[in-house]
Each structure stands twice: as structure tokens, then as C-alpha cells.
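Hi L.,

As promised, Polyketide cyclase:
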Amino acid sequence: MKTKESITVETLVKASIEKIWRFWTSPEHIKKWNNASEDWHTTRSENDLRIGGKFLFRMEAKDGSFGFDFEGIYDVIITNEKISYTLLDDRKVTVLFVQIENGVKIIEIFDAEEENTPELQKQGWQAILNNFKTYVEKSMK
């Protein structure tokens, strides 16, 4: 069996851990930041934030040309610190929330899928993480 490549993306968000956690986990907020580019959006967001709970984010191209469900099951939840989940294709994802002096560093580590290049996947996940940072920091003004 081939070992899955692990990819890491990260960002620093200048906000309280409580706000970051709320915006990361609340369906109404997820719909506002969960896209890799302006021509995509999340049309549906369901989040049962508990171990064994499921989440589903429906991501679609705004022109209606393509869409997919991003879904999985939570394995670990430590409020304001860590979320780990397994996607339906058995890939693992871990999200760490690390408080530092001037904000919170968010580190996402995920198993690569085999359809797209690791670099393309890293770019896509980083773009979504950057959107999260922008969304949280703009909402503070």
C-alpha cells in the first residue's frame, strides 16, 4: 500500500482564539470563507462538531459548472486547540490552533489525494486558509 503524502499549510490570524474557533466551526461563517477563489462558493454547510460527528460543505463553481461535497467525520476535538477528522476517502486532516503573542497560528496537515498534484492541493488549501484569515480579520473592523 502506498503511503499518502502529507501536506502542510499555515497562517497567522490576528484575533482571539475564541473568535477564530467560532468562525472556523459555525456553519454560517464557514459559508462565507470556505472557497479557494472568487469564482467558487460554499452553498451548504452542516457541522456536527463532536467526536464521531459529521460535517458536509457543498462547494460549487459560481457559474454552476461544477460542484462537490467536502465531508468527513471528526476523530479528535479539543476546543480552541485541535480538530482532526477523516474524509470519506479515508484521508486524514489535522488542524492545530496555536496561540502566540500576536494572534493564533493555524496549521493544517492533510493527506494528499491522488487526482491533483501536491503543489496544486497545497495552493488550494492555502487559498482557503488565506480567505479564512481575511474574513476573520475584516470582521474585526
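The chain has a mean pLDDT of 95.

Thanks again for sending the construct details.

K.
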